[in-house]
Amino acid sequence: MEEQANEVIVATQAALAQASALAVEYAFSIVGALLLLVVGWWLSALLSRWTHRALLRIRGFDETLSRFFANVVRYASLLMVFVTVLAQFGVQTASIIAALGAAGLAIGLALQGTLQNIAAGIMLLVLRPFRVGEYIETGSITGIVQEIGLFATELKTPDGLYRLAPNSTLWNVPITNFSREPTRRFELKIGIGYDDDVDLAERIMREHAANDPRVLDTPEVFTFVSELADSAVVVNMWYWTKAADFWPTSREMIKSVKKAFDENGISIPFPQVTYHGQAMISVAANEAAARISAE
C-alpha cells in the first residue's frame, strides 16, 4: 500500500511539475495573445472609423457604401488578429487560411445571386445612374427611387405602389432617368384636316407655348409639318420646360390647343375613307353595256 501511495504522490508531483513548466512556457504566449486581442479589437474599430470618414470626404460618395467598406476593413482586421493569436500558440496558420479560403469559396458559390446583387449595388452607388427621389424607367420597372441598398432598391410606382427591385435587375439593363437633366423637350403632334389653314394652326400652337411661363425661351419653340397622312396633315410643336414642369405643362398644353382649334374652326379629323361615287357609276354602266352588247 505504501508503495502504491508513493507512486501516486510521485505521479502527482510529476504532473504538477509538468503543468508548472507548461504554464511558465505559455504564460508569455497567453499574455501576448490577450494583448493582441485587445489591441487588435481597438485598432480594427479605429481603422473602420478612419475608413468611413475618409470615404465620406469624397464628394458624392454614398453613406451606405462608406459604411460597407468600413465594415469590410474592420472584419478583415479582426480576422488577421485571430490568425496572429493562433500563431502565438504554435498553430499552423497556413492550414487555417486555406480552410477559410475554401469556406469563403463555398459560401460565395452558395450565395452567388446575393453576391451578384451586392456587386451591382456597389456599382450603382459608385456610378450613380440614379439617386433617391429621381424617376426612372427600365424594361420592366418604373418608379421614383426611395432607397438604394446593397441588395435591392426600393421604388414607388406612379400609382403609389411599393416595389422592391434586386440590384442585379437594375444594373444589367438600360436605365432611363427622367429627373437627371434639368430640362426636357415635349413634342405635341396634332393632325388637322386637309382643308384647314396650316399656318394658322402653327401660329396658335406657338402662341399658347409663348403664353405659358413654364415654357423656356431657349431653345425656342419650333413648329413644323411632319407628315401628310391619309386623313390629316400632322403638325408638330417642340418646346422645352424644366423637368419638374414637364407633365403638368404637357397635359394642359394639349387641352388648351384643342380648345383653340375648336374656336378657330380647325378640325382634327378621324381616319376616314372617301368613295368617288361618279367613277363607280361609270364603271358599273360600262359593265352593263358590255353585257347587253354581248347578248
UniProtKB/TrEMBL annotation:
Locate the Mechanosensitive ion channel MscS domain: which residues? 114-180
Q: Which UniProt keywords apply?
A: Cell inner membrane, Cell membrane, Ion channel, Ion transport, Membrane, Transmembrane, Transmembrane helix, Transport
Q: Where is the Mechanosensitive ion channel MscS C-terminal domain?
A: 187-268
Q: Where in the cell is it found?
A: Cell inner membrane; Cell membrane
Residues in Mechanosensitive ion channel transmembrane helices 2/3 domain copies: 71-112
Which residues are listed as membrane-spanning?
26-47, 68-90, 96-127
Q: What is its main location?
A: membrane
The way this protein sits in the membrane is described as: Multi-pass membrane protein
Q: Which domain of life is it from?
A: Bacteria
The record's annotation in InterPro entries points to: LSM_dom_sf (IPR010920), MS_channel_1st (IPR049142), MS_channel_C (IPR049278), MSC_TM_helix (IPR008910), MscS_archaea/bacteria_type (IPR045275), MscS_beta-dom_sf (IPR023408), MscS_channel_2nd (IPR006685), MscS_channel_C_sf (IPR011066)
Is Ion transport there in the keyword field?
yes
Q: How does it assemble?
A: Homoheptamer.
Q: Which family does it belong to?
A: Belongs to the MscS (TC 1.A.23) family.
Q: Main role?
A: Mechanosensitive channel that participates in the regulation of osmotic pressure changes within the cell, opening in response to stretch forces in the membrane lipid bilayer, without the need for other proteins. Contributes to normal resistance to hypoosmotic shock. Forms an ion channel of 1.0 nanosiemens conductance with a slight preference for anions.
Task: From the Swiss-Prot or TrEMBL record, give the protein name.
Answer: Small-conductance mechanosensitive channel
The source organism is Peteryoungia desertarenae
Query: In the record, what lineage is assigned to the organism producing the protein?
Result: Bacteria, Pseudomonadati, Pseudomonadota, Alphaproteobacteria, Hyphomicrobiales
